[in-house]
Fold:
Amino acid sequence: IEYVADSPITAGEDLVVDAYLKTTDDEAVAGVPVKVTVTVDGEVVAEETVTTGTDGSIAFTMPTADYAGKTATVNLTFEGNDDYVAAEAIEDVVIEEAPKNITIIFTPDDEYEVDSTIAIDGEVYLTDDETPVAGLPVTVDIVFIDGTNVTVVSEPTDETGSFHVDLPANVIGEATITASIKDAEGYNDAETTETTEIIPVEPEDTI
Structure:
């Protein structure tokens, strides 16, 4: 049996068996039963007998959403018949956790005086259930009306998913602030953009 497992795969993808039953002379063994058994943690989670195609192909598919972080052992067994001896192939398939979707939130003030400090406090949480996500640095970029920008990377989020950065209010006019997380292991990329207005300093009253 010719079988090379596609591994690793991501939970939620199908575990696909694409194998062939052939003789030692590389001739296809067609129309015979092959038993496919999949075990996870020593428990049989799928079992099916398939019939080889005209080219000796063995086709089998199994969903994997319930087996994130596990290793599936795939066993292909041909018991043999009057014409062919028995054959077997065993391969492991690592099923990795699917990357999780995350959401970044922050709300800047409507306006800041020029040359002041723009304090940004935000949170990162799982999109599905709003569980806080700790340990992720957040890149915060402010783009001013003249096209210049400043980028600051926060300390990793704390156990409540919170982060903080201080940005400069360099240029009078509208400013765009973008908070992003990219290439974080186990998480999909996330980005949120807000705007604020940088205003002139109010002149002090004089007597």
Summary: Residues 179 and 192 are 5 Å apart (CA to CA). The first strand starts at residue 9 and ends at 10. DSSP finds no helices and 15 strands in the chain. The radius of gyration is 29 Å.
